[in-house]
Amino acid sequence: MPPPRLPNPVERYAIPWNGGEVSCLRRTGVKRALVLLHGLYGGAIHFDAAFSDTALSRHALLAIDLPGFGYSDKVEPTTIQTVAEAVKGMIDDQKFDKKPWLVAHSLSGSVAARILDDVIGVSLIEGNILEDHLRFSDDVIAHDRAAYGGIFSRLEKNALVALRFQTQPRDRESLKRYAATYAQCTADTVWDIAKDSNEDIRAHTTRALFADWRGPLYCLFGSEGSYGETIHDVQEALSCAVLREISNSGHFPMIDNPEETYAAIAAHMQNRSSHA
Amino acid sequence: MSENSIETCIVTFFRERGKDIPHPEADLFELQIIDSMELLELVMHLEEKLGLEVDQDRMKADNFRSLVAILDTMGHAAAKAS
Questions:
Q1: What angle, rounded to 10 degrees, do the helices at B36-50 and A145-157 form?
Q2: pTM for the whole thing?
Q3: Cα distance between residue A138 and residue A197, in whole Å
Q4: A-B contacts (CB, under 8 Å)
């Protein structure tokens, strides 16, 4: 029996953007690329399990550090729109032969809605769509921008505990790796993007953009995630959305149960391709 | 580790912040005695001072909602460590 085919190597890569850099983790592959976008306080590293996942082993992967997060520089102003433009810049730079499939976690749901023309399909993981999904950004903008600096530094000190309330990483090393993203962003970045995202969701902009879109929208939710019963409101708001609950997961299904999360996304992509 | 030493540690955390717990079953969130940030600091404080680690499946806000709940959570951690 031939040895199993190993995925191509992962590399960190950056493009110049607005006087700074936008950074990503990427891997080439023979199957359609997936672009992976993290949420508030996060980074590309939150998708590290995708790079070793069997269901995605032949897909190209591009996990982007959003501007101001991970290894990417902040853009001014930091808004959903300017962040989406940076993501689009990184996607364009890859020169994929086919449009990629976008996977967006939490706050990145609003970013995803801005680049729908550039992708073939979208999977939102606990993605922000409705007003009920704003708990994390509400907590941020409950303080004014200057005062949030003090709150953020307390949060940064307690990042490990904060993540333990939200995720169930398999080991302490993974937890530390994911929590390190709190130290890579700044209070101003978090506050700016949280405020803009909140306004966007409350104005129903993200919801309207998805409602007008004709591509596949796959919404994944953790069985013990942040959105609870409101997942049914998503179906009501966006009749085209296909919902999927990921078992044994909170707000971070890609960390808590990566096998089920990525297998579900891969199967949905495959299913949509065969119907296309 | 005795329940008394755990309770002392909890009460000290609140006293240092100028807060008192009105009664053991008082809802600390509802009474705004603790907010989400202080909850993180409470867990950090208890784990450091008591040398314990709260079980991952107990990392839910409800398990820190009252003095009774916190004692139960930390008592469970102590029992597991011993």
A1: 30
A2: 0.92
A3: 10
A4: 27
**What ipTM is given for this predicted complex?**
0.89
Taken in order B59, B65, B70, B71, the sign of the CA dihedral is: negative
pLDDT along chain A (276 residues), means of 10: 74 97 97 97 97 95 98 97 98 97 96 97 92 81 93 93 88 91 96 94 94 94 84 85 93 96 96 69
Instruction: Return the exposure string of A27-66: e unless at least 16 CB atoms fall within 10 Å of the residue's CB, then b.
Output: bebebbbbbbbbbbbbbbbbbbbbbebebbbebbbbbbbb
DSSP secondary structure code for residue A74 in this structure: P
Distance CA A221, CA A244 (A): 6
Q: For residue B36, which residues of chain A lie inside 8 Å, CB to CB?
A: 139
- Contact in structure between A114 and A91 (CB atoms under 8 Å): no
- The one-letter amino acid code at A40 reads L
Give residues with Cβ within 8 angstroms of A171, minimum separation 6: none
**Cβ A154–B37 below 8 Å, yes or no?**
yes
CB hemisphere CA count around A99 (13 angstroms):
14
For chain A, the farthest-separated pair of C-alpha atoms sits apart, in whole angstroms, at: 62
Between CA A264 and CA A258 the distance in angstroms is: 10
Q: Is B73 exposed, middle or buried (0-12, 13-18, 19+ CB in 10 A)?
A: buried
Query: From chain B, which residues contact A within 8 Å (Cβ)?
Result: 36-37, 39-41, 43-44, 54, 56, 59-61
The answer to whether the Cβ–Cβ distance between B40 and A151 falls below 8 Å is no
Token pair recorded at residue A265: 């996304």
